[in-house]
Write a structure and sequence with these properties.
It holds the Pfam family CARD. By secondary structure, the chain is mainly α. Among the domains are: about 90 residues, Death Domain, Fas (Orthogonal Bundle); about 25 residues. Helices cover about 70% and strands about 0% of the residues. Helix 2 packs across helix 5 and helix 4 packs across helix 5. The longest helix is centred in the C-terminal third of the chain and has 21 residues.
């Protein structure tokens, strides 16, 4: 995608209220004038820095002017925007499109938030239930003869599981050993 098309796509975002303040626009215009004199002449820079015109009008005129000049001029505008307002540059709609080239691709930031919104306590609770069920199934299986070992493990686990749950498991294991 050319820089002119990107600038046309980002124009509404950039000209909306309170995105760019006067100081940042002045810095961008000065950079396009001083550092890259072939981008904006002195007369053009004065026109776009005129404090009598509103910021919205000056910025809109600047963006339209750069689009008429060509792709290289738009590219230099993006470079100046990145230097002077990096956070805004990273939030541009065209940058977000460039970051995810496939529109059907999953946005990993959003997916990561959706998967991790329950926290570590939820994970530990689920893991504990799964481990308890696995131990219970292993001990109840008639083919295995590990009730004595399981009883020893449960006997040393007052920290891992609660006292009441441990007592219930111990009673169950005693009943299983009698049968």
């Amino acid at each position: 995608q050319s820089y002119c098309h990107r600038l046309q796509h980002d124009m509404y975002f950039l000209t909306s209220t309170s995105r760019l303040n006067e100081q940042v626009v002045d810095k961008i215009v000065l950079q396009l004038n001083r550092v890259y004199p072939q981008i904006l002449t002195n007369e053009e820079a004065e026109k776009f820095r005129n404090p009598k015109a509103s910021l919205h009008t000056r910025l809109s005129d600047l963006l339209k002017h750069l689009q008429k000049k060509g792709d290289r001029h738009c590219q230099e505008f993006y470079r100046a925007l990145q230097i002077n307002a990096e956070q805004l540059y990273n939030d541009l709609p065209s940058r977000k499109i460039l970051k995810t080239p496939d529109p059907t691709e999953i946005d990993t930031d959003k997916e990561q938030y959706m998967l991790n919104d329950r926290g570590p306590v939820f994970f530990l609770a689920c893991f504990s239930v799964a481990a308890g069920l696995a131990l219970f199934w292993y001990c109840c299986n008639s083919e295995t003869q590990v009730i004595g070992r399981a009883r020893r493990i449960l006997g040393f686990s007052p920290i891992i599981i609660g006292r009441h749950v441990r007592n219930i498991c111990m009673l169950y294991l005693e009943d299983m050993s009698r049968n």
